[in-house]
Amino acid sequence: MTGRHYRRSRVCILIAGLFLSAGVAPAATQAGTEPPPAFTPTRHDVVLGTADRLTVLTGSLSNGPVADLAALYVDGDGERRLTIFSFLDGDWLPVVETSLRRDVSFVDIAKIDGRDRLVAYGDGRLTWFDPATGEERELVAVTSDFNASPRSEVLHVDVTRDLNGDGRDDLAVPHGHGFQVLVQGSGGSFSEPLRISPSTGLDRVYGADGYRYIPWEEGGRIHEMDYDLDGRDDLVFWNGDHFVVHLQTEQGLFSPEVRAFRAGIAFDSDQIASLAAPAGIRSRRMDHMPEGESKGRVLHSLTDMDGDGVTDLVVFELKGASLWKMRSSYEVYFGAPGSGGVEFSPEPGAVVESDGIISGIDRHDFDRDGQVDVIVTAFEPTVFSAIRVLVMSIFTGAGSFDLEFFRMEDGRYARRPSAVREIRPRSPRKTGERTFWPAVRLGDVNGDGLSDAVIARNRKRLHVHLGVPGPELLARKPQRITIPVPEDEEYTWLADLNRDGRQDVLMHHTSATAPHRLTVLMSR
Fold first, then answer.
1. Cα torsion 387, 391, 397, 399: sign
2. Beta strands across the sheet bearing 55-59
3. Nearest in space to 473 (alpha carbons), one of 422, 416, 406
4. What is the C-alpha to C-alpha distance for residues 38 and 447, in angstroms, rounded to an integer?
5. What is the 3-state secondary structure (H, E, C) of 120-178?
6. 3-state SS string for 110-127
7. Which of 129, 156, 152 is nearest to 57 (CA)?
8. Residue 198 Cα to chain centre, angstroms
9. For residue 153, is pLDDT > 50?
10. What pLDDT is attached to residue 231?
């Protein structure tokens, strides 16, 4: 993840099943502008181990200048095997090989008392692994009903985030319809768990294909906003017909006493899954439910969209009588100081509208002006586009979706996108292949302070769309990198491994018969 500039919100609303080593080419730029610095990484290939399912995490576990890799899998005897790779002599080499306790169901990386630690959950407790001694040390007692995987694997569940803005990682452990929140204090101590949860709702969170889960962002439905405008973020959730707030105290804790407020904005639910979702997206839910309606209004987020320091309310609306006449809107209701806290404008102040099928909405501040830009992944099903997709599918196994980038300027979105890029999902063409859904990752990979878009073009090539200043956001032509690309988007991500302020590209290549491999494109 690249911090709060980017929060992935893969809403996927309607049926979409219609469907370096060498070769680095420079990106073209707009006339009259300086070309952006090229992305010139070094390539590293790390053999991780042989297993049906294997999980990879990154963190400075040895406190070295380059992040370590942690690979975990369950062996044939049920042992939770852990290998830690450290960056030595220009590459990652195994330095620790051991086992965690057998009841471990998920892991994460947390910064505890200023140090990155591998934390593991199982049987009502969190521990952290000490690489110096090879032992697990007690962290906190906390209960989670996040189900263990039905497959033999140790999941990566993101349970850490700085909730109170003090620079320390707090714990947000999924439980019931919400979370148990434990605030980190001095010396790596934690507060008693505080249950923050709606009284009703979905019992399962959204997640990846058994690889990486981010419950807070993918269905957790707890929002961070400074409701009472005291300069401290509070925790807010929708509870049927009103919002509930746990205010942050001067000590950085969250009050168990709650305050209620109403927004005055109409929406049907705070659950994106209440709208129709394709089978491929429903399978990302652990309960494969629900199918939902083909129209409606849902609360999308509570976040400061225009950079004025006051939280805004965002509603996603889907409407249309049929697949061929779908229309969606992303509506921002700006917040302002009110008598008791934040109050929202009764009319949307910024709107993104799109025709057709929406398969994803992302938020990202590309030019870091404090205003949040929106990326819509869409397919408009006209007769001609359907024929085009059908022909492409027959001859290449590929469909086509548009990535539409809407830049916010002066608190408004233009009617037309600032930039449009294409992605091409591909159906399997031979035995053993999976459906290829292109990864789209956003972050600054060349160190110029502007965000770039790393897009998997196909199974053999990455396109790096470098950021440019101004309304167009991205260079018109990408930098092309010829390299094997994972079929599943979840297995490509960005992280700053060498602490140079640039995002590096990581690609996990899975296999049931050969060793898993991790390819790293690290900036230099």
1. negative
2. 55-59, 68-74, 80-88, 91-100
3. 406
4. 9
5. EEECCEEEEEECCCCEEEEEEECCCCCCCCCCCCCEEECCEECCCCCCCCEEEEEECCE
6. EEECCEEEEEEEECCEEE
7. 156
8. 23
9. yes
10. 97
Half-sphere exposure of residue 181, counting CA atoms within 13 Å on the CB side?
25
> What does the alpha-carbon distance between residue 104 and residue 106 come to, in Å, rounded to a whole number?
6
- pLDDT band, very low/low/confident/very high, at 448 (cuts 50, 70, 90): very high
Whether 186 is covered by a domain: the verdict is: yes
Q: What is the pLDDT of residues 213-239, one digit of tens each?
A: 888 876 658 999 999 999 999 999 999
CA–CA separation, 158 and 164 (whole Å): 17
Mean of the pLDDT values across residues 104-108? 95
Please give the Cα distance from 510 to 508 (Å, whole number): 6
DSSP 8-class letter at 270: S
The verdict on residue 75 lying in a domain is: no
CA atoms within 13 A on the CB side of 39: 35
pLDDT at 20 over 80: no
Q: Where are the beta strands (DSSP E) in 27-90?
A: 42-49, 55-59, 68-74, 80-88
Q: Which residue has the tokens 């889960």?
A: 213
Does any domain span residue 149? no
pLDDT at site 266 = 95
Q: How big is the chain by its Cα radius of gyration, in Å? A: 23
The number of domains in the chain is: 1
Q: Please indicate, yes or no, if residue 221 is contained in any of the structural domains.
A: yes
Burial class (CB in 10 A: 0-12, 13-18, 19+), 350: buried
Q: What is the pTM of this model?
A: 0.86
Comparing 27-31, 38-42, 350-354, 488-492, the range with the smallest average pLDDT is 27-31
Full residue range of the structural domain in which residue 300 is found:
3-19+21-53+158-522
